């Protein structure tokens, strides 16, 4: 499979998921999102922490593609491009959120990104948290026997 820069819809799903699932009923996800936001945001200076995180994730995605194909795509995103990605979708499912995160995580695994990027392991941690919360909020999980 070839590597690519994720499209605007993938980023919109991630942007939405970081807002929709930053909720106590998704406690693992909420903690992982908080850790991701804290790693890229400057408190009181960033108006939209989620957009700041999205721009940082985009930069790592582009850097990974540049390393893979020996290209020189700009890692900075324009305000107009970022605005297109920051489209809130309140009805986003946790399944779509995790699938978009997995897509981005896969696209970020080129070159030395997994070893050098502080965001790469945080996306992995967020994927794990969302999957855990999906399981814990399901009826089948509630009905399963302990032990």
Which outline best applies?
globular
Specify Rg, calculated over alpha carbons. Answer: 16 Å
Helix content: 55-70%
Task: Count every beta strand, where a strand is a DSSP E run of 2 or more residues.
Answer: 0
Distance between the termini: 40 Å
What fraction of the residues are assigned to beta strands by DSSP? under 5%
Structural class: mainly alpha
Largest sheet: none
If you average the pLDDT, what whole number results? 94
- Helical run tally: 8
* N-to-C series of helices and strands: HHHHHHHH
- Count of domain modules: 1
Uncertain parts: none
SSE order and pairing:
Blueprint: H1 8-20, H2 27-40, H3 49-69, H4 79-85, H5 94-107, H6 113-116, H7 119-136, H8 139-143
Helix pairs in contact: 1-3, 1-5, 2-3, 2-7, 5-7
Can you give a write-up of this model?
The protein is mostly helical. The protein contains eight helices and no strands. 65% of the residues lie in helices and 0% in strands. The N and C termini lie far apart (40 Å).
Give a nutshell description of this structure.
With 147 residues, the chain is an all-alpha fold. The protein has helices at residues 8-20, 27-40, 49-69, 79-85, 94-107, 113-116, 119-136, 139-143. The protein has one domain (8-141).
């Amino acid at each position: 499979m070839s590597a690519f820069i994720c499209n605007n819809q993938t980023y919109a799903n991630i942007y939405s998921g970081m807002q929709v699932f930053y909720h106590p009923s998704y406690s693992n996800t909420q903690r992982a999102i908080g850790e991701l936001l804290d790693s890229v945001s400057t408190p009181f200076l960033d108006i939209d922490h989620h957009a700041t995180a999205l721009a940082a994730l985009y930069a790592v995605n582009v850097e990974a593609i540049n390393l893979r194909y020996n290209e020189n795509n700009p890692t900075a995103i324009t305000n107009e491009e970022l605005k297109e990605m920051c489209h809130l979708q309140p009805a986003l499912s946790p399944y779509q959120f995790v699938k978009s995160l997995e897509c981005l995580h896969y696209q970020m695994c080129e070159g030395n990104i997994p070893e050098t990027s502080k965001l790469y392991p945080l996306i992995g941690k967020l994927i794990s948290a969302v999957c855990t919360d999906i399981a814990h909020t399901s009826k089948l999980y509630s009905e399963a026997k302990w032990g």
